[in-house]
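Researcher: Next sequence.
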Amino acid sequence: MIVALGLGAVTYAEIAQLCGATVPKDLHGMRPHRLVTDSREIEKGDLFCALQGIDDGHKYVREAARRGANAVLAERDTHVPIPHILVPSVRKALGDWAIGVSDKKGLIRIGITGSVGKTTVKDAVSLMLSKRFSVHATYGNFNNDLGLPFTLLSAPKESEIAVCELGVSHKGEMKELSRILRPHISLITCIGHAHIGAFGTRDSIAEEKLDILAHAEEDGVLFVPFCEPLLSRLLPHGIRRVSVAPFEEKDYAKHGLRPPVDDVARNFALGYANAIAKEFSLSHDMIASGLKTILALETHRHEAYIKEMLFIDDGYNASPESVIGALRYLATKGATRRVAVLGDMLELGEKAADYHRAVGRFAAKHAERLFFFGAYAEEYAKGAYAAGGHPDASPCHGGCVFSVLEGEKEENAKKIAVSLLAGDAVLFKASRALQVEKMIELIKKQIL
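Model: Next structure:
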């Protein structure tokens, strides 16, 4: 990882002070060019960050020095002749560095979390506020306790607002993210079932998400979906709650815009962007321009026509809510048939089978042809059958037909490819680990 330092481009003396370390004498007055975590990417003047994870970054300090690094942020002396800024925890030190420089700048900080829709809402809010302010936002999904400091440290010095995505997968992680960001404005997109295997219940997920307020600035604001009782608990003193509804036809008409077809995620994103725009007193024209820009925003869902068939690649990730949303979107397509290729939704815990059966029931009512793959394919199939779907091996007249795919990717791709017809709309949806994009490429090879 290479971090081009913006706000973080301070002297080594300041970095050491913020991290609670002693700066080596030969670094006084100097400042790093970039922060780099991969020794192979080091250039002259960089600060090498010796992170400990799957591999131990301390093993590569000598290579970093050879390539031109002028210092290393480390947890122990490696006895390599390069100045060491020694800290108890490199990860925590990066957070402390980010806290110090964002405080000094007076950066307005917005934190966005939730079970689904974080990236779409983050992009929407960033685009809206950029109509008036200099905005810096999380790149991609760098939303953990490393990605968040990197986002703040790389913010250009002219930045006025940082819009940061915060993601958690285990209990206790949000408090550290809140400590690093100390948001002025917090936003929770929804409380769903993503990572419920780690949290146990939606109540526990809501509790974790609300920890975004653990270190929030006083007199801040919390934006929440209007219909979620799990987010109604008493807030810390001075924090104001604002309930947000998704955009409806009347809201689009008010701004002279055409609403997207059954795109729940986009409707909510516009609702949040509009609410935050009002919080920052943007003009009517700025808001209208921002909404128009957001409607043109590309999302994780990618569409392409191939041999008179519409392929919808929505394989970025999957939870019950996001799969149901994708199936609703598929149902709006005026196609010869609606076809859905669904893989596992991961990290759902002990009720994972129940969730897959429920989504299978929903899928059978929103598509004419279904393919299920992965460890929970049979559970999807049980749900589809309960909703009136028919296995592909049994004769049927009308209704939804489903198949359980059990072979290798190549074999499964061939089975899907031979069943597709001109005019089909084909949705691909599964958790990221199932690598849906590889199946799509294999199907393309079969039909092109």
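Model: The chain has 16 helices and 18 strands. The first strand starts at residue 2 and ends at 4.
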